[in-house]
Write a structure and sequence with these properties.
By secondary structure, the protein is α/β, with parallel strands linked by helices. The protein contains four helices and five strands, in the order βαββαβαβα. Strands 2-1-3-4-5 form a five-stranded parallel β-sheet, sandwiched between helices. The termini are close together.
């Protein structure tokens, strides 16, 4: 399945680099995807959906099938909250929450989810 992702600090990019999938990076939010995809994103601020991801979803939300989100547990209740917000807004599952760039075990589980 197509993977679409946004990465600011490199954590999500690190996860994507370990997957063997067709991927598209969201940089401006103006990108277009006309096929089903899984969204990989980070959580911005204190639990916010990154602005470029919001823009992307406004035009491509009809094809999202699930979301994988990276976060930092140091943010407490805001940990990976962007994934929960997107899942609720687009009625898709939040497939996986990962601490920063994840562990080898996380990557193995994510690879299974994306198949």
């Amino acid at each position: 399945m197509k993977v679409v992702y946004a990465s600011r600090t490199g954590n999500v990019q690190s996860i994507i680099d370990q997957l063997d999938n067709d991927s598209l990076e969201i940089s401006s939010g103006d990108e277009v995807v006309e096929e089903p995809y899984i969204l990989f994103t980070y959580t911005d601020g204190f639990g916010d959906v990154p602005p470029e991801v919001e823009s992307f979803l406004e035009n491509n939300g009809q094809n999202i099938k699930g979301v994988v989100v990276s976060g930092d547990q140091g943010y407490g209740e805001a940990y990976c909250k962007a994934g929960d917000v997107i899942a609720e807004q687009y009625n898709v599952p939040c497939l996986y929450k990962v601490e920063n760039a994840g562990t080898d075990e996380d990557i193995a589980k994510i690879k299974e989810l994306v198949k």
